[in-house]
Design goal:
396 residues, alpha+beta, Ubiquitin-like (UB roll), 2 domains, 8-stranded mixed sheet
């Protein structure tokens, strides 16, 4: 059973009618004391109003509340959408009696529809009055859009022997591709964390997790990963380049990778989670470039769905990735089964064994270029009929 309580953090969620289904669609996260924060945002040049506002306000590195809604992205809604976003933050600040500059806002859902203010006016008093330590799971539920299930990960660490908690929640299933995706992730810790460690640890963890996954090569307008550290536990402040600071970074990286894999697993219509590892590249950057090329190939992803060990599609994707490659040195394995050595098939018998690997819900594809020491990983899903069905009817 996961411990979803973090000292000094309270949560609430409700159904305001933003979702046609009538399910939970508003969530509030509140730190009883101002928290240090760090964030990473979408790289899409089309940016939703909540991101524009939150990025500017959190530049000072302090946050005390996060208001998030699903059912409406409030993206591409012009000055009116920006005004509504500002008003929702004002409502939160007034209800909680905190500076509006410490309020982060986030939205996810359909792009291009103006976010109505009325649900916030009607339900924010309820959100504030029902805040408690036990509703983190409710917020994880409220931020879902096409997600099949909520995504939560937890960890316990220590600072000079004093325990602290980390809880992370995320949403995402479609429009998943670096840099970042149609996803939101919020991380809360009661540890005291130095600002440089918080920012650096988050960026490294995001690069190895949310920026290393793909479902469909689409990057959204509303993506945000935000971490709050309110320092309400005892123990000294965690610092960079110390054993306890390094351990905090490792905990954070592990949690975000867990969430990232859950997003891939929940990829709209997905039936497989596949780790693509490229080793032996000239450097890490080229290894990552080649791994992304394989992970994003529609032909490779459909072969995964068809449980077809079609290594030709994989070596082709590496070949057009832009990474340096000598075709006569390439080796490819599905799981532990080698299907290519020195750029040539290992034969029908091993390919048949590789096909059995592809029948598993999770497996690994290893590509060794035998050129250097570069290593890169990506996580991807298969591309299925249900992905088309889900996205063809998304707005209806």
């Amino acid at each position: 059973m996961q411990n979803l309580k973090v000292k000094g953090f309270h949560f609430s969620a409700c159904a305001s009618g933003l979702k046609k289904s009538g399910k939970l669609d508003l969530g509030l996260i509140f730190s009883t004391t101002p928290a240090r924060c760090a964030a990473v945002y979408t790289t899409n040049k089309v940016v939703a109003a909540p991101i524009v506002i939150t990025r500017k306000r959190l530049a000072a590195g302090i946050c005390q509340a996060i208001l998030v809604n699903s059912g409406n992205a409030n993206a591409c809604t012009g000055p009116a959408g920006h005004a509504v976003a500002l008003q929702t933050a004002d409502l939160v600040a007034a209800q909680l009696q905190i500076p509006v500059e410490t309020v982060a806002i986030a939205s996810t859902g359909v792009i291009g529809q103006l976010l109505p203010l009325a649900p916030f006016e009607a339900f924010l008093p309820q959100l504030v009055s029902t805040l408690n330590q036990d509703q983190c799971a409710g917020v994880a539920e409220a931020i879902r859009t096409t997600d099949a299930y909520p995504k939560i990960a937890t960890a316990i660490g220590t600072s000079s022997g004093h325990p602290y908690n980390i809880v992370a929640i995320a949403k995402g299933a479609g429009m998943i591709h670096p840099n970042m995706a149609t996803m939101l992730a919020f991380v809360m810790t009661d540890a005291q964390v130095a600002a440089d460690l918080l920012d650096g640890a988050l960026r490294r963890a995001v690069d190895a997790s949310f920026n290393s996954i793909t479902v469909d090569r689409d990057t959204s307008t509303n993506d945000m990963v935000l971490i709050l550290a309110n320092g309400t536990t005892s123990g000294p402040e965690l610092q960079s380049n110390t054993p306890d600071g390094d351990a905090f970074s490792e905990h954070l990286a592990s949690l975000l990778l867990q969430l990232a894999k859950l997003i891939v697993k929940d990829g709209e219509g997905a039936t497989k989670v596949v780790e693509i590892e490229v080793r032996g590249a000239l450097n890490d950057a080229e290894a990552r470039q080649a791994a992304m090329s394989v992970a994003t190939s529609s032909l490779v992803k459909t072969a995964f769905f068809g449980e077809d060990a079609n290594w030709g599609r994989i070596i082709a994707a590496v070949g057009y990735s832009g990474a340096e490659i000598d075709p006569e040195r390439v080796a490819i394995s599905f799981g532990e089964v080698p299907v290519v050595r020195d750029g040539i098939s290992t034969g029908a018998e091993l390919e048949a064994k590789a096909t059995a690997v592809l029948k598993q819900p999770e497996f690994k594809v290893t590509i060794d270029l035998h050129l250097g020491s570069g290593l890169g990983r990506y996580y991807t899903s298969d591309l299925t009929y249900d992905y088309i069905k889900c996205n063809a009817s998304y707005r209806s």
